[in-house]
Amino acid sequence: MKHQKNQSRFKLLIAGIIAGLLSGVVKLGWEVMFPPRTPSRDATNPPQQLLQLLGIPSNIIHLTYNFSEHALPWISFIVHYSFSIAIAIIYIYIAKKYTKITLGYGALFGIVIWIVFHLILMPIMHVVPNAFDQPFSEHLSEFFGHIVWMMVIEMVRRYFYNIQLLSLIHI
């Protein structure tokens, strides 16, 4: 019994890490095609702004690495992927008990995350402007970006938790 519980936790952790990493890549790709913020607002992006509010010095949060002559914000990426992994683990855990959150292949949950974080919590914390002061393009990008992001998490969840079903139908 204890062994089975440990296996279940390990499976949740592995599925959450893989789902978080893959969905994080998809979300970053989405933001390349549909940038949610203007270049001036991205000079200090929301993960960097959050870290500044937590007291981490600007010279640390703006550290970059270079790839193909692009300076890339690796501290922001750590926050981005950590958030994605944490949400994936929470989502997969909750979905085991409350399957309704998987509605629309996870799209509904993605919309809830967007509302809670981008329209409520982050503005309250002064990480992003008030929801009414954010441009429509930011809402549009983040709304659909969160849907696609959660759909990837749901695809990974279904892969890990429906393997028996897939083997029965020989796909």
Write the layout of secondary structure elements.
Layout: H1 2-33, H2 39-42, H3 46-53, H4 58-61, E1 65-67, E2 70-72, H5 74-97, H6 107-124, H7 136-161, H8 163-169
Antiparallel strand pairs: 1-2
Helix pairs in contact: 1-5, 1-7, 6-7
Structure notes:
The protein has 171 residues and is mostly helical. The protein contains 8 helices and 2 strands; from the N terminus they run H-H-H-H-E-E-H-H-H-H. A two-stranded antiparallel ribbon has the order 1-2. Helix 1 packs across helix 5 and helix 6 packs across helix 7. The protein is globular. The model has no long low-confidence stretch (mean pLDDT 93).
β content, as a range? under 5%
Shape: globular
Instruction: List low-confidence stretches.
Output: none
In angstroms, what separates the terminal alpha carbons? 31 Å
Quantity of strands, as a count: 2
- Secondary structure category: mainly alpha
Order of helices and strands: HHHHEEHHHH
Overall pLDDT confidence:
93
Cα-atom Rg, whole angstroms?
Answer: 18 Å
Most strands sheet: 2 strands, antiparallel
Question: How many alpha or pi helices?
Answer: 8
Helix content: over 70%
Q: Enumerate the strands of the largest sheet in spatial order, edge to edge or round the barrel.
A: 1-2
